[in-house]
């Protein structure tokens, strides 16, 4: 089946590489051509002589002295004639755009930038429209265009009014061309860093008469980074260096990492609450045949990030002062308890600001952390988290921002971290930004499975969409296939008929178990294939050339036509694990999940398990043992946090996408803010995928057998080894419920529920009656007769071996 699903790797890869190569070559050629033109014009300007231009002066030089020849001289002459000194600015701007293209800098809103640049060149020429050249190089300093515009303005506004209009137009066109704001520049010139209030020496704990809210967003256009916008970099790439001034209580110019060009966080209800109903996309009329699917896949291209929303900028000029005041409150709070601490640095992230706090060597850490509630009270915030950082001798104090910043999904996709991840990772998956404002991208292939927990309304659905959307934006259906289980029947509705799906979205938990049985079989098939080809993991198999693969298969007497050239990664995501565990309790679904988690990594099969009920009977030790990667959004209790993360802390999160993540190989839990993808941009992206390619379903859930069976759904399957003992307990006590069996026999919730369901199917107990005990349908004598007959199920001796 896998062979039918995936073949033709070489042809598809060549076409994809050809497309990428063509695009890169065109961009490279355009940039080099523009740079060559700029160099040509500069040389022509430097060596310009009017006598090289026919008709400009007399006599004409027989041999042009211009380094650009006759063409160069004529080009410069035309520029001088129409723009005057504006020619120099035009060549300079042309050079800047050539550099942007060469270094692959993306210019946002390029039509606006182009209009602004054109206005700037013309206005610059008009500024010199009233002055004439003192040499014979150019007719006038403003050229024909500048002189004409200046004359028209002078006739209507007078000389002073003309220069005021031109000054305003110059500033406006500069703003449109560069996106530079003048206010931060003027502010920092009037208030240089050296004049900022410095905090030094011991202070008495003052009575704070007004709230200290250290949360205003940092100014995106600091004076030290404004000039980078001229190169299209914006403020996102600016990270000021750490300074170490021993004479201060804390660094007066601490590290400020801009959170992004992002708008304020959406209203809290939008990111954390349940997402509104989404219109179900119109399904494809018919799934594509394997041949049609592979043919269409050759023309498949990854979605363009331009279809996603651009986050708005936010101005927050008082962020530095607010954070300095908060740093002083931290120092004063501990001074009141006679603890000499020093805030050496602070960094603003999207959700919290982290203050680096130095403590004396003779002070124990737990003596500091015990005062976090007092600190939260003085800072007037809901909670404060204290963490130690590997590689630093400081304690990080995470203080919630007064105004949280939304982390846009497009911003994550355009980050350098994700660009680098596309080159190095097999399954790059975006999370958001950490407490320091750094983009978080991890490789699902290395996790290799992920467990996500969180209470209802804390941003879990948005986080799922961010993970899935990042996979779909980075991987083609040739590289990745999905199995999506949605017991709630609403979360994964938008993904229906996406070409990456191996099967339609599964909304029946019992059918989901059958699909997991298929996944286990696929895992075993893949391991057999890896063994026969002499490789240890899927990435090594996919790197084999077609010639080498055929050679190894023939050595094992295997027909190469029956083996795919490339195996895709398979990601199975379950939206609500607790529901599937409960409904399919009699199918040993936890054992299937545990088996996949234990050995599916090398076969390229990965799990993402999500639950809003992080209880020990749902996230059993059997499941958690092989899923080291954990993410927890806010939960209700510290116990639930320990179940998900094996540590407390998630109960103190702020909600709305605020999360803690524990990854293999990382020593401590990392705090992060989930990215946000709106319904409209998610639907645009998924519509783009569906428009390119119809789904090619390999799994038909309707044709799969019932879980654990080869026949109908009325079978009870293999009885639990303690089934007879459990019925004895029920008959003796006259009570039939899972909670009773857990108490009487010391069983777990899942196993006790499974036995109760088996009793119902064996007509020993009646159906569930809500909070009441189930009705016992047979007498004690009838049960004894069943046991003695060797058929405890009452189904005709099928389970004789169980009665022995």
List keywords for this structure.
804 residues; alpha/beta; Threonyl-tRNA Synthetase, Chain A, domain 2; Arc Repressor Mutant, subunit A; 9-stranded mixed beta sheet; 28 helices; elongated; disordered N terminus; disordered C terminus
Please explain how this structure is put together.
By secondary structure, this protein is an alpha/beta fold. Among the domains are: 2-188, no CATH class; 189-263 and 312-400, Threonyl-tRNA Synthetase, Chain A, domain 2, CATH 3.30.980; 723-803, Arc Repressor Mutant, subunit A. The chain is built from 28 helices and 13 strands. Strands 6-5-13-12-11-7-10-9-8 form a 9-stranded mixed beta sheet. A 4-stranded antiparallel beta sheet has the order 1-2-4-3, covered by helices on one side. It is elongated, with a radius of gyration of 34 Å. The protein starts with a helix and ends with a helix.
Contiguous uncertain segments of 5+ residues: 1-14, 192-285, 708-716, 797-804
Give the termini separation: 41 Å
Strands side by side in the biggest sheet: 6-5-13-12-11-7-10-9-8
The Cα radius of gyration reads 34 Å
Summed up, the helix count is 28
Strand content: 5-15%
Helix percent reads 40-55%
Largest sheet: 9 strands, mixed
User: Mean pLDDT, rounded to whole units?
Assistant: 77
What form results from the Cα inertia axes? Answer: elongated
Strand count = 13
Structural class: alpha/beta
Oligomer: single chain
